Hints:
Blueprint: H1 3-24, H2 27-45, H3 50-73, H4 81-84, H5 89-125, H6 139-167
Amino acid sequence: MNPSVLDRFTRGVDAFNTRVGKAASWIYPLLMIVIVFNVTLRYVFGIGSIELEEVQWHLYSAAFLLAFAYTYVDDAHVRVDVVYAGLSERKKAWIDLFGCLFLLLPFAGFLLYFSVPYFFESWALGERSDMPSGLPARYVIKGILCIGLLLLCLQGVSVAIQKALFLAGYRRPEVRR
């Protein structure tokens, strides 16, 4: 396949995941408002709310899951930087390529493979919270799990292609912040 087509594909995936991740970051101020409102209701007025508790973990989960791939675009994921930082760009590219192909993609793909039927079963059943006053659509967060894993898999493919292009001499290394 033409390296320029692959390069355009990776830049498109990176740009898309960056937009999704930055949009997901706006969930956190909303989460903060819900938490402050819930704490105020509970400790000032003595009113507990299961709905607000569930909204909190749904918002946190959605923001986290949708920003997964953006973390990888921004090269902010967990890594043993003590070893990695002193390596040459080529050795870093080999480690990243190996990590994508043999760790990230199999693991994220495995999770995605099993989460999709989990979502569809929940959706078909119209699954809701176990709590009587809980949220009515538990399948929404399960769908977001699938979307987050799909975006992470796409980003893993993008990074693997980028590293392969660099190792083949078609691309210069990215300068990260």
